[in-house]
C-alpha cells in the first residue's frame, strides 16, 4: 500500500514509518518539524520513503495514488502543547480537515491518532469529556473535529 503519514518526523510517526517500510509499504511522510526532527527519519531516506516538509493546516498535495492517510501531526507532549496551544488547536481542526480532504480526494482510508477524550463539556461533568476551557482542550478537541468534518 501507499501510505501518507502526517507527523512522520515525530516520535510515533517515525517509528511507524520504519515499521511500515519494513512490511513492504510505500510511505509519504509529511511534517513541518514543529516538534519533530529530521534526524528521526534521516536513516529512512533511500528507502521507499518520500518526505514532504509541509504544514498540514494548509492544502495537502500528494502526487499519485494513496491507500491510507494516517493523521498523526500534532504537538503531543504536555510540555509542547501547553507552549503551543494555537498551533495545536489549528492542526487538530484545520490540519484534520485538510488530511480528511486528501483522503477523500484519493479514496483513501483515514486513521487519526488522538486522545481518548473525544468530546468536550463546559462543565466537565459528563464522563469521558474534556473541559472546553482547560489547558488540554487544544489537544483533546481534534478527534471531535474529525468526527464533525
Ligand atoms: N505519544 C503519546 O503518548 C500519545 C498519546 C496519545 C495520542 N498521541 C497522538 O499521537 C500523535 C503523535 O504523537 P507523538 O508522540 O509522535 O508526537 P510528536 O510531537 O513527537 O510528533 C508530532 C509530529 O507532528 C508534527 N506536526 C505538528 N504540527 C504540524 C503541522 N501543522 N503540520 C505538519 N506536521 C506537524 C511535529 O513536527 C511532529 O513531528 C499526536 O497526534 C498525538 O496527539 C500520542
Characterize the structure shown:
It is built from five helices and seven strands, in the order βαβββααβββαα. Helix 3 (85-106) runs parallel beside helix 5 (142-148). It has helices at 11-22, 78-83, 85-106, 137-140, 142-148, and strands at 2-6, 26-31, 49-53, 68-71, 109-112, 119-121, 129-131. With 149 residues, the protein is an alpha/beta fold. The chain is globular and about 45 Å long. Helix content is 34%, strand content 20%. The model has no long low-confidence stretch (mean pLDDT 87). The strands form two sheets. A five-stranded parallel beta sheet has the order 3-2-1-4-5, sandwiched between helices. The chain binds nicotinamide-adenine-dinucleotide. Nicotinamide-adenine-dinucleotide is lined by residues 6-7, 9-13, 31-36, 55-57, 72-76, 80, 91, 95, 113-115, 139.
Tertiary shape:
globular
Show unreliable segments. Answer: none
The SSE string, one letter per element, is: EHEEEHHEEEHH
Strand content: 15-25%
What is the radius of gyration computed over CA atoms, rounded to a whole number of angstroms? 15 Å
- What is the straight-line distance between the termini? 25 Å
Strands of the widest sheet, in order across it, are: 3-2-1-4-5
Strand segment tally: 7
Largest sheet: 5 strands, parallel
Mean pLDDT: 87
Amino acid at each position: 500500500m501507499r501510505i501518507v503519514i502526517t507527523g512522520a518526523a515525530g516520535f510515533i510517526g517515525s517509528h511507524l514509518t520504519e515499521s511500515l517500510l519494513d512490511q513492504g509499504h510505500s510511505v509519504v511522510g509529511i511534517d513541518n518539524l514543529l516538534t519533530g526532527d529530521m534526524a528521526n527519519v534521516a536513516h529512512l531516506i533511500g528507502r521507499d520513503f518520500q518526505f514532504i516538509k509541509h504544514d498540514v493546516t494548509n492544502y495537502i498535495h500528494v502526487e499519485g495514488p494513496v491507500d491510507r492517510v494516517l493523521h498523526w501531526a500534532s504537538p503531543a507532549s504536555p510540555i509542547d502543547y501547553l507552549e503551543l496551544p494555537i498551533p495545536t488547536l489549528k492542526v487538530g481542526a484545520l490540519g484534520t480537515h485538510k488530511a480528511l480532504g486528501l483522503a477523500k480526494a484519493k479514496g483513501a482510508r483515514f486513521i487519526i491518532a488522538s486522545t481518548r477524550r473525544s468530546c468536550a463539556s463546559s462543565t466537565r461533568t459528563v464522563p469521558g469529556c474534556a473541559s472546553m476551557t482547560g489547558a488540554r482542550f487544544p489537544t483533546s478537541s481534534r478527534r471531535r473535529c474529525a468526527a464533525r468534518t
